[in-house]
Amino acid sequence: MTTTTTTRGTATIADLYRTEGKAELIGGRIVRYMATGFQPNQIAFDIAISLRIYAKSTGKGVVCPDNIGYVVPELTSGRESFSPDASYYDGPLPQNRMKFIEGAPTFAVEVRSENDYGKAAEAEIAAKRADYFEAGTKVAWDVDPVNMCIRSYRADSPETAVVFQKGDVAHAEPAVPGWRINVAELFPD
User: Fold this and answer.
1) Is 98 exposed, middle or buried (0-12, 13-18, 19+ CB in 10 A)?
2) What is the tens place of the pLDDT at every residue in 47-72?
3) Is 5 part of a structural domain of the chain?
4) Has residue 4 been placed in a domain?
5) Is there a contact between 110 and 1 (Cβ–Cβ < 8 Å)?
6) Are strands 180-182 and 169-171 parallel, antiparallel or unpaired?
7) Cβ of 170: how many Cβ atoms within 10 Å?
8) Model's pTM, two decimal places?
9) Is residue 131 part of a domain?
């Protein structure tokens, strides 16, 4: 989730389509994100695989790995897009499947990278989580590889995390009904 650079303050979704790499539109600026390290990437990928198996078996929703674009009406923060590390979406897909999804992910997963720790990072993570909920996301995960835990936040209780650790089976209720994942599988020794 670590940001690297931002561009001018008058960018639009059309500009975001032309931006190479992972980026989001916030306050009229293209905010680029650094590439992630091996462990955060693998955790996000494992979550996406598990979600995809769920979606295929239930015939409900779609799962997107890292770098999908979700476009939302401008939020209070100025944000107009998201690009979660993994996500589940159960809304209408774009008519042109080459375009971003219009709407917020139903369930968003953000996996912390090496530089996503400390006061500034905590504030950035909390602000993005608030944006997810304002946009309509039901559940947002803050996956912490250093502390080997998942903090699960729900829109109906956005400041209170349910913490899943090794030995727990995590869920994303009510966003992904019935889906479960063993936390120990995400943080191997």
Assistant:
1) exposed
2) 999 999 999 999 999 999 999 999 99
3) no
4) no
5) yes
6) antiparallel
7) 22
8) 0.93
9) yes
Decide: 55 and 41 in contact? Cβ < 8 Å. no
Expressed as residue numbers, the domain containing 57 is 36-186
Here the tokens at position 12 are 């639009």
CATH code of residue 153: 3.90.1570.10
Cβ–Cβ < 8 Å for 34, 4: yes
Distance CA 179, CA 146 (A): 24
Number of domains in the chain: 1
pLDDT tens profile 107-145: 999 999 999 999 999 999 999 999 999 999 999 999 999
Closest Cα partner for 98 from 73, 69, 74? 69
Percent of the chain with pLDDT over 90: 92
Tokens 């979660």 sit on residue: 84
Residue 189: the pLDDT is 73
Averaged pLDDT score across all residues of the chain: 94
At residue 9, the pLDDT reads: 72
173-176's contacts with Cβ under 8 Å and 24+ in sequence apart are 173/139, 174/138, 174/139, 175/88, 175/106, 175/107, 175/137, 175/138, 175/139, 176/51, 176/54, 176/61, 176/88, 176/106, 176/107, 176/139
Rounded Cα–Cα distance for residues 124 and 188 (Å) = 27
Residue 178 CB coordination number (10 Å): 10
Could you tell me if residue 14 is inside a domain?
Answer: no
